[in-house]
Design a protein that fits this description.
- The protein is mainly α.
- The protein is built from nine helices and no strands.
- It is elongated.
- 22% of the residues are buried.
């Protein structure tokens, strides 16, 4: 007779988010069991093992980023976008030095380019963010608030690169002031794109 799950999928994934944020993919199966209430048997039969469960957790993280973390292009102008970049390094939002930070970014570091399934999700993350930036920039151009000569597509790609660079700075920093300076520089660049 098959053993029953001790936790439903949604609560297990929510618990796993904290675990994978804190330890990355290196979290042990035992730690996953303890944190989520899932048994090894359930991990194997329902998810195909630790990697399958991690991918489900990463999908949930990306859904959350899309719904709650990334700026909403319907209500975000260039000034609000600049503020959003600065907010990434505010106390309570910036991870502590001993925490891992963005799960999507950390997955790039944990897996490199070898894992096709992780790569698909990272591509989704980057495309999702770029699309948000493009909508905001196109809206600014249509409203006459974007400086002349700036191509929204190129600017959106620059912002993707700057976000990734900010994640590196946050992860590698010795103290928070370093990341705050980088976020401030990104915000200043975005503000320089706005016609007043």
């Amino acid at each position: 007779m098959a053993r029953k799950r001790k936790a439903d999928h949604a609560s297990a994934v929510t618990a796993a988010l904290d675990l994978f944020w804190g330890q990355g993919y290196g979290a042990s199966t035992r730690e996953i069991e303890e944190k989520t209430g899932l048994t090894r048997f359930t991990l194997q039969t329902a998810y195909g093992g630790k990697e399958g469960f991690f991918l489900d957790t990463l999908d949930a993280y990306l859904d959350r980023a899309e719904d709650h973390h990334f700026p909403n292009p319907d209500v975000t102008d260039l000034a609000a976008l600049a503020d959003w970049f600065e907010s990434l390094t505010e106390p309570g939002r910036i991870p502590l030095v001993d925490q891992k930070g963005c799960l999507a970014f950390n997955s790039i570091a944990d897996f490199g380019r070898e894992n096709i399934e992780v790569n698909k999700r990272i591509q989704r993350y980057l495309e999702m963010f770029e699309e948000r930036m493009l909508v905001i920039l196109e809206k600014a151009r249509a409203g006459g608030t974007l400086i002349d000569g700036l191509t929204p597509t190129d600017a959106a790609r620059i912002l993707v690169d700057l976000l990734l660079g900010l994640h590196v700075t946050i992860k590698a920093r010795a103290e928070d002031v370093v990341a705050k300076k980088h976020a401030g520089s990104i915000a200043a660049l975005v503000r320089s794109w706005q016609l007043h």
